[in-house]
């Protein structure tokens, strides 16, 4: 290779290598930003939950404090009353005792007087019956002793009063005022102590609300910062990717390797590259003929080489030319006869699809753009190995080189006999692609799903539970919202609004159907037709409107972002073992995998599930053995098509 070509090749290699390293670095930064945002959102959600709990506890402590203050006021009043009683009851006992003695003396006097009045009445009754003095004596006797059983006399009332005064004296004397004062004072002290404890708890709850509010504000700032960082790194990654692709297109024939997205074992990969651009225009007309090529196009054949990524630094033009001159082993490259851009329908692109036959790559019949060029067919069933003769392996990193071999006539004209070797393509890896779990359902805290995999794959299914709380997560960035940051704010509100409108229309429709039924049964036939026509028209209008609403709801449901925070395959694959559980393998005759949800189950952030909260069950298919992950691409179940469930604590 002459010095110019060598320097040019080195410069291109350094440029693309540097950009590829930058691309890998920006991809690593992007992944790190994803995790930073995910955990920042987790911290923000946890802070919001803590604030909700703190607010609820604050309200509860506030109610307790209010009741404690009321109880303390009552205790103060009772203690004050008991202290007054303790002061006045001893004097009351003394006064009541004196009063009872005086009443007793008065009662005794009245009884003696009653006896004398009775004697006088007996004498007058015998001596002066039915006289004026008799009437006066009888009146006095009736007042003293009572004129009838229902009309008690003074003597009886005196005895009764004496009894009541003595009982009052006894009752007052029995009041345990000193003991009551001690107990009331003790009770008041306890209530005051309780008030202090409740007041401390209230202050603690109030402080917790302030602390959690500040923590939420801090978490919000950190989350928004992480969101901005992700957007920035996303832009950097995209620009780095664009720069690499542009450089690769301009400097390296736009050499690419594409692996189709197919579940199961990889079956092919596609190598594409542009035509080598001739440095001369209209070379034949200018007398610059490349020998046997009528159009003067300099490239005679292209050759594709497969190289392990770790060996790419040691693969050179001389190595490539040496391989194609050794006819004994043609499995080390693919030969593609050149077609000039003037003849090729795809004048800038060649494609080669290579299929795997257990661990080997088999060349298909032709390059897609060369199928109609019968003279340029690529042999069938050509097994491609890497340049060291090793079979291609699942999980191994490879690159591809393309060698453009020039026509000898062209080499003579330009006076250099070097061919053109591209720099290596971007690194690629063939991996087994797992199939995502389907039909995920949760019934009474038992999660079930189905999964179909290749029987040779040793797979585990990680059950992940994503918190679904639109009010709590509203405003957080989601994976899909990187492209639709402005749309998410109104979607959920619109969704709920349409759902409410839908339910109202359904109710109206049922009412109209009921009216139609009543009209048919109650009205006369001649007047029923007009009523039915009006109702049917109204019914049809409602049906049409309901149908439109349902279509809008379906669209909103499709666009609705679950779970409401950033989550994708990269995040799911990187979760710690505390954030997921492993499903149980089905046993005959069951064909469903299962996972029991209980108090030890955690959500995707590693927090215990909260009773009454809603979650989205997600399943990640991954190889069981850590060292096998390099050979597999896992599969995450469809979050948007999975129903939400509410977690309840199983009391059994």
Characterization of this structure:
There is one protein chain. The chain has ten helices and 20 strands. With 652 residues, it is an alpha+beta fold. The strands form five sheets. It has a five-stranded antiparallel β-sheet with strand order 1-2-5-6-7, with no helix packed on it. Strands 3, 4, 8, 9 and 10 form a five-stranded antiparallel β-sheet that branches. Strand 5 (350-357) and strand 6 form a beta hairpin. Helix 1 (3-127) runs antiparallel to helix 4. The longest helix has 125 residues, at 3-127. It is elongated, with a radius of gyration of 50 Å.
SSE layout:
Blueprint: H1 3-127, H2 132-145, H3 154-174, H4 177-251, E1 256-258, E2 268-273, E3 299-308, H5 317-325, E4 334-337, E5 350-357, E6 360-363, E7 383-384, E8 397-406, H6 408-414, E9 420-421, E10 428-429, E11 432-433, E12 438-443, E13 446-450, E14 459-467, H7 470-473, H8 488-522, H9 525-559, H10 569-573, E15 581-582, E16 593-596, E17 614-623, E18 632-633, E19 635-636, E20 645-646
Helix pairs in contact: 1-2, 1-3, 1-4, 8-9
């Amino acid at each position: 290779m002459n010095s110019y070509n060598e320097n040019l090749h080195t410069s291109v290699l350094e440029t693309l290598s540097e950009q590829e390293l930058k691309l890998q670095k920006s991809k690593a930064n992007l992944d790190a930003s994803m995790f930073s945002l995910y955990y920042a959102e987790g911290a923000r959600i946890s802070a919001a939950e803590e604030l909700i709990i703190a607010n609820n506890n604050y309200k509860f402590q506030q109610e307790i404090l209010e009741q404690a203050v009321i109880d303390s006021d009552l205790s103060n009043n009772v203690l004050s009353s008991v202290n007054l009683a303790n002061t006045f009851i001893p004097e009351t006992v003394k006064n009541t005792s004196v009063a009872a003695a005086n009443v007793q003396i008065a009662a005794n006097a009245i009884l003696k007087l009653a006896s004398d009045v009775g004697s006088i009445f007996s004498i007058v009754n015998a001596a002066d019956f039915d006289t004026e003095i008799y009437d006066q004596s009888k009146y006095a006797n009736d007042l003293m002793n009572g004129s009838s059983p229902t009309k008690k006399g003074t003597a009886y009332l005196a005895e009764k009063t004496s009894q009541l005064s003595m009982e009052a004296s006894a009752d007052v004397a029995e009041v345990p005022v000193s003991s009551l004062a001690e107990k009331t004072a003790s009770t008041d002290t306890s209530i005051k102590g309780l008030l202090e404890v409740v007041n401390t708890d209230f202050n603690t709850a109030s402080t917790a609300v302030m602390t959690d509010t500040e923590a939420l504000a801090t978490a919000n700032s950190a989350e928004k910062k992480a969101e901005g960082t992700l957007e920035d790194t996303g832009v950097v990654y995209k620009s780095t990717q664009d720069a690499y692709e542009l450089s690769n297109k301009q400097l390296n024939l736009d050499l690419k390797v594409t692996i189709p997205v197919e579940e199961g074992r990889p079956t092919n990969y596609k190598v594409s590259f542009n035509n080598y651009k001739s440095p001369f225009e209209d070379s034949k007309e200018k007398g610059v003929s490349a020998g046997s090529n009528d159009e003067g196009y300099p490239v005679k054949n292209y050759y594709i080489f497969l190289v392990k990524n770790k060996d790419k630094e040691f693969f050179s033009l001389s190595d490539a030319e040496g391989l194609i001159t050794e006819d004994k082993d043609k499995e080390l490259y693919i030969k593609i006869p050149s077609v000039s851009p003037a003849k090729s329908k795809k004048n800038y692109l060649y494609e080669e699809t290579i299929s795997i036959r257990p661990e080997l790559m088999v060349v298909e019949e032709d390059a897609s753009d060369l199928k109609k060029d019968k003279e340029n067919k690529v042999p069938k069933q050509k097994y491609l190995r890497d340049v060291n003769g090793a079979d291609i392996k699942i999980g191994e990193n490879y690159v591809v080189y393309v060698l453009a071999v020039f026509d000898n006539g062209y080499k003579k004209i330009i006076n250099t006999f070097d061919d053109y070797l591209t720099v290596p393509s971007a690194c690629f890896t063939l991996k087994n692609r797992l199939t995502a779990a389907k039909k995920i359902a949760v019934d009474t805290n038992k999660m079930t799903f189905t999964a179909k995999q290749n029987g040779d794959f040793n797979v585990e299914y990680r059950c992940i539970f994503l918190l679904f709380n639109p009010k709590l997560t509203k405003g957080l960035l989601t994976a899909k919202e990187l492209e639709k940051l402005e749309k998410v704010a109104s979607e959920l509100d619109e969704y709920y609004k349409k759902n409410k409108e839908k339910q109202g229309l359904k109710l109206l429709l049922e009412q109209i159907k009921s009216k139609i039924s009543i009209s048919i049964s109650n009205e006369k036939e001649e007047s029923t037709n007009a009523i039915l026509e009006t109702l049917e028209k109204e019914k049809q209008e409602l049906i049409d409107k309901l149908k439109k609403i349902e279509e809008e709801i379906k669209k909103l449901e499709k666009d609705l972002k679950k779970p409401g925070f950033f989550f994708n395959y990269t995040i799911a694959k990187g979760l710690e073992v505390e954030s997921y559980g492993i499903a149980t393998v089905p046993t005959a005759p069951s064909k469903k995998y299962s996972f029991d949800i209980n108090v030890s189950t955690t959500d995707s952030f590693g927090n215990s599930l909260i009773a009454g909260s809603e979650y989205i069950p997600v399943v990640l298919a991954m190889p069981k053995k850590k060292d096998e992950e390099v050979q597999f691409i896992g599969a995450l179940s469809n979050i948007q098509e999975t129903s939400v469930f509410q977690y309840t604590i199983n009391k059994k």
